[in-house]
User: What shape does this take?
Amino acid sequence: MVASRFLFGLAQAGLVPNQAQALQSWIPDSGRGLASSVLVVAMSGGAIASLALTGLLMTHFHWRTIFMAYGLATFAWAALFWLCYRNSPVGKRSLDDDSSVNELLPAPRLQRNLPLSLLLLNCSVWGLSLQALFKTAGYNFLVTFLPTYLEYAHGVSAEQTGALASWSLLAVMGGSLLGGILLDLGAAAPSVRARWLPRQAPLSHQCSAPRRIPWQ
Assistant: This one.
């Protein structure tokens, strides 16, 4: 199990940089905060749907069968993405008349042989790495272990664990969407104080956490 989780982590290593490159290629700078938050909302929405669906399917199918079905759906989605996605909107016929395409900056030239010391001494890299460490640990708990914890530690039925675990992900969706909107508003604001506001957006999801605990 540990080895499989390690391999999953390796496979996801390109998720964030590829996502950032896609947003840079397709989304104008003025809307990238909201676009990034929409991607997070979509990820959490998929997790919520899978939690609820898995709870229902577990009453009729073995977990291995469900696991294989999800894997097949992943291959189908990957094939659809490969057929539909383009690295740049330039030249895509359906966007030829869209004036917002002109707002996109040309893709920057990649710098080869980037010194490792430049990354290790960069405060932004350390900040992103530390927040990703704690964020990923908490998110993985919500997605993978929380249903099991509710079932075995508090006696919640398998049908209810998925629905209960989804509440925390709903908070992630609301906080992320609000944070993306504030980020775009703050980036467009002329004052330093206004640009400081979006940095506090990650705290917003705490305000929407459910207060009622079902096993009390």
